[in-house]
Amino acid sequence: MKKLLSILAATGIVATTGITVISCGTSEEKTIINNIDDITLKVEESKTIEVTVINPIDDASISVISSDTTIVTGKSSLEKDTKKEGKFNVIVTALKEGTAKLTVKYGDAAKDFTVKVTSNGETPQKEDLNNVIKVKDLGVYEGVGDLPTIDEVLKQVNTKNSDLNLSSDDVEFDGNPTASQAKLKAKTTSTNYTGNATLTQTYSKTKATTIGAVGDKEIQMGEKIDPISVTVANSKS
């Protein structure tokens, strides 16, 4: 009996060992992008970062995504890893002060790092409002109030000057606007603009659309009646 148990025990050990070997043989190697250190750049500065990948794959697509492209952009030296090398460069370019995150993607793998952009020590050159607003006749438009608001005026300014994107963060009224004129001036806190500009316009308050009264009428079942005329005042096209 002892001899039989010894044989069975030995057989069990061999079987267990065989199962363990098979299990290890089916594991898959995961593709991982090595850590990328956070960096600090000055405005208009660029830096090239070398990126390496563990367990690279054939023809892996490579891309770089910025959380704020107004602050920093990133571009890969390769669009695909056609040689399965797992090595490429990312060119980082700082555009303005702030902090943004860059995400490097290699196939299904991704790695984030942070880019902080600081001032390059140069004072940005402010533009004169009177020069940047080339079209100063805002034309005919309507608004909700008796006089236009700053946002309504700026919407017309940006429409007439398609290369502009003025906002109330940079400009304000210089005095009170009228239906025919609006004066703008740069805010003292604006880092982009200086000076003032006088604009002409034909502004009016939007008239409410109303439907005229329709009289009651009694009809009999199956009776045909003439069309009823309905009058609409200030209809919108």
TrEMBL record:
It comes from the Bacteria. It comes from Spiroplasma litorale. This is Lipoprotein.
